[in-house]
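Regression test case RT-17, inverse folding.

Input:
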């Protein structure tokens, strides 16, 4: 049995990986949390758990190197964005002790920095929202609302919706204090979220998947709580050209918004990591973790470009928080639909109980605290 060191033990997609492959690979994991607060540590497929400091890049990389040297791991598999950034920056050092499949640093910089991503998209002819790097002077030039402002390198942590010049000024001042990179403003695209997902080696696609979001939390925009597999040739072409141009190595998610009015996809950002909705991809028939590990080991892999039409619900904690925020009815939450799967897995029960407990606790917070229901603000129509 080959051994894998996987990161981000608190993530639901890390749990998805070890549940999918735990019978054929041995997994040890890294986590920034105490072990009792680490979701995947409760899985019956979990091996050793190493608590690491992920906030400081140098400390994190040195700790990974130390564990790789001592552990004789066949593969190092990052999961979250910070882990992929560190793996990319230090990949030559890591590759002395293990196998991994991550992009080179120059390529990674383009994918995780939204300024550079938008520039790439424009060169490739891929539509993007109108984007402006904000400054004190440029604030006065914005007339059309609502708009979205965010940090260039961490959209999930720094996103605010602005409906008026006053909100724009207030949120810009807040983000300017928090962000270490440019604060950008983007046109707000009305429509549904869709994602292109690829696994590549030297820009060649070995796995392709697409999905559309049905419900997300926060309800005004966030990770999927309910999603379904999806296919659109235009979306596929956009994703494919990005992967080829970057000569990408590893997983890549391209997040788009589809505007029914314009009948067009607009690239919002690239996520150069394993996506949070990995459960759906695997259930639809695309075993991304296995493909990644085999490509890292240099094995021959037959490309996978077809998949089943299914829906997946992350009932706890994600969809329950949608319910508690008023984003769906109790009838919808309790409904059982054909070709629908959930993250409730009683064959590996402890992580499921952990997710249910977390969902109940966070759901109460969401119900009583408007800032938790709408952390990015509300778009006013």
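Golden output:
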């Amino acid at each position: 049995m080959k051994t894998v060191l996987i990161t981000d033990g608190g993530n639901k997609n890390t749990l998805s990986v070890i549940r999918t492959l735990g019978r054929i690979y041995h997994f040890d994991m890294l986590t920034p949390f105490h072990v009792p607060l680490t979701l995947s540590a409760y899985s019956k497929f979990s091996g050793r758990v190493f608590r690491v400091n992920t906030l400081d890049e140098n400390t994190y990389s040195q700790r990974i190197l130390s564990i790789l040297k001592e552990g004789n791991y066949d593969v190092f598999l990052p999961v979250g964005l910070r882990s992929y950034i560190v793996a990319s920056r230090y990949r030559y050092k890591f590759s002395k002790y293990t196998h991994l499949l991550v992009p080179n640093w120059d390529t990674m910089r383009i994918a995780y920095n939204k300024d550079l991503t938008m520039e790439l998209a424009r060169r490739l002819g891929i539509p993007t929202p109108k984007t402006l790097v904000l400054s004190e002077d440029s604030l006065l030039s914005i007339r059309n609302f609502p708009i979205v402002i965010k940090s260039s390198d961490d959209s999930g942590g720094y996103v605010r919706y602005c409906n008026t010049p006053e909100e724009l000024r207030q949120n810009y001042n807040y983000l300017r204090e928090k962000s270490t990179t440019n604060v950008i403003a983007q046109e707000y695209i009305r429509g549904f979220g869709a994602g292109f997902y690829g696994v590549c080696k030297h820009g060649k696609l070995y796995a392709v998947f697409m999905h559309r979001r049905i419900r997300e939390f926060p309800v005004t925009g966030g990770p999927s709580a309910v999603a379904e597999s999806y296919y659109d040739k235009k979306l596929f072409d956009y994703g494919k050209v990005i992967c080829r141009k970057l000569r990408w190595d590893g997983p890549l998610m391209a997040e788009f918004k589809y505007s029914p009015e314009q009948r067009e996809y607009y690239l919002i950002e690239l996520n150069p990591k394993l996506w949070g909705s990995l459960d759906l991809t695997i259930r639809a028939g695309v075993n991304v973790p296995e493909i990644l590990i085999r490509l890292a080991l240099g094995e021959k892999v037959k490309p996978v470009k077809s998949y089943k039409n299914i829906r997946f619900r992350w009932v706890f904690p994600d969809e329950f928080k949608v319910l508690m925020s008023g984003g769906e009815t109790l009838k919808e939450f309790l409904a059982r639909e054909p070709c629908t799967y959930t993250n409730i897995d009683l064959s590996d029960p402890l992580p499921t109980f952990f997710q249910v407990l977390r969902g109940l606790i966070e759901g109460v917070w969401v119900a009583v605290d408007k800032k938790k229901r709408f952390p990015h603000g509300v778009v006013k129509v």
